[in-house]
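Q: My labmate handed me this sequence with no annotations at all. I'd like to see what the chain might look like in three dimensions before we decide whether it's worth expressing. Could you predict it?
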Amino acid sequence: MKKNVLITGTSTGVGLETALVFAKQGYKVYATMRNLDKSNTLKQKIKEENLDIEILELDVTKQETISKTVEYIITKDKKIDILINNAGAGFAKTLEQASTEEIEWVNNVNYLGVVYATKAVLPYMRKQKAGRIITVSSVGGLIGQPFNELYCAAKFAVEGFIEALATYVGPSFNIKFSVVEPGGISTEFMKSAISNTAINGQFATGEYEPIFAKYLEGNQRRANEEAENTYQTPLEVATVIASIAENEHPPLRKRTSKWAEEFTKLKTALDPDGLKQIQQITKTFL
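A: Here is what I predict for the chain of 286 residues:
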């Protein structure tokens, strides 16, 4: 029986490409998304290349859809080999200007969605004493950035969550945890990050406006002048995710580009893959 993989957020970008890469490598892929109306691109690829991909509805902000999907896969296959927590959304807005609803949404989609999906698969992976959980984080999970405090906070939370699980759940039950930390990606994700800066059609206002103008100018300059070095394609990131899944001794943390490595090196130089930290934590507490 072939290995299976459950992937969240596969309607576009990294999630879509990850589903395709895994299917081409011989996995049974359960590609999930919040809105099935956005599945046409993936459906076309499945048809053209005769890929073993099943599209399912799953909204990471709604626990009942996560549970329903996991139960469906277990009933059908009796196992889940790999979970890829990919669903997420960009958000760049000052804390003062973000509404309570937006703050809750950023955490729900970028952090709690990871928690709930991981919680749903763990009992089965623990029982089978095997499994991999690969979570798409960001360099924003290591480095706080202007106008991204809420997004970065959610990704920092993801990093701590996975690191903690890796210290005791991983070695005790043969479940391997990894976080993938891309830099810029040329996808709909980037467009959503910019669109989520708008407040009633306006960007940051008041005393923040000149700072925000510099922020946008810098983003635009990098997009125009340094795109080749800064921004990756979704396929490039998906290929890294697939390589981690095939690695017998996967890293806890993995940046996906030279730019991401350079950007985060002050925090990662002593322990690039995060495994020394895990060893130290385990030695201290267990």
